[in-house]
Amino acid sequence: MDFDFSFFLLVATVITGFIWGGYLLMLRSAGTAFDEENEPWLVEYARSFFPIVLIVLLLRSFLAEPFRIPSGSMMPTLLVGDFILVNKFTYGIRLPVINKKVLALNEPKRGDIVVFRYPKDPAVDYIKRVIGLPGDKIVYDQKKLYVNDKPVEQVSLGRYEGFGQGQDMTGAEHLRENLTGIEHSILVRNDALSAEGVYVVPEGNYFMMGDNRDNSNDSRYWGTVPEENLVGKAFFIWMSWDWQHKGVGFDRIGTVLE
To answer: Same domain, yes or no, for 95 and 116?
Structure first.
């Protein structure tokens, strides 16, 4: 079990609910009417905070969770300082904290941008794009991607101009990649070394790669992601902040991710 924010939300919900509910039961057993003016301060705080933490827990666990992008591994799709929302129910309903799936819904699709728990340290959240589905054969060779022995189409968009905290990616080649019907942008440094190889995705696992192909710690280095590590699908940028550029990136707010 990972003692993350969901764990502390659950603990706060249980404690405040126990205090508030226990006080009401005590009054009922004694045949005493509830008097808000004379309630103990601890009960008052519990009564005030219980519905708030409960609502936050439910929303964050079952609907959508906010994340901040800390690195450039998904450039140019996601920039350092982007704040995104992640759909928590699209891949199934999971219980908070223990992350056990209780209702299966959709399966990840090739091209989805997914937040997941890093297999080598589940306490850390990663975000990458789904490249390989269970049973797929993935080949990455000389900056080219192949899915089940078919080359993935790439069209050059020219030289990338970075800014702010992504300034160091200036000069990379900006490409539009058609991942079997899902088009998205990627960055490639033709003079940089990157991991290459042939990978077969095991059942119940997914092969993940960053859009910034030469600056991404992904499945090429540490393997595939088990289904139980999936957190949700990123779908929306609700805020963008880069203190090295222009502060709030108003042009990025409201961007729907693809």
So the answer is: yes
Residue 47 is part of which domain span?
5-62
Give me the active site residues, please: 73, 128
Q: CA-to-CA distance for 257 and 86, rounded, in angstroms?
A: 10
DSSP alpha helix (H) spans, the chain: 5-30, 41-62, 219-222
User: Which residues does residue 101 pair with via DSSP β-bridges, in sequence order?
Assistant: 94
Is 186 in the same domain as 120? Answer: yes
Q: CA 72, CA 113: separation in Å to the nearest integer?
A: 14
The one-letter amino acid code at 223 reads G
Residue 224 lies in a domain: yes
| Global pTM exceeds 0.90 | no
How confident is the model over 207-219, as pLDDT tens digits? 999 999 999 999 9
Give pLDDT tens digits for 165-199. 999 999 999 999 999 888 999 999 999 988 999 99
Whole-number Å distance between alpha carbons of 24 and 34: 8
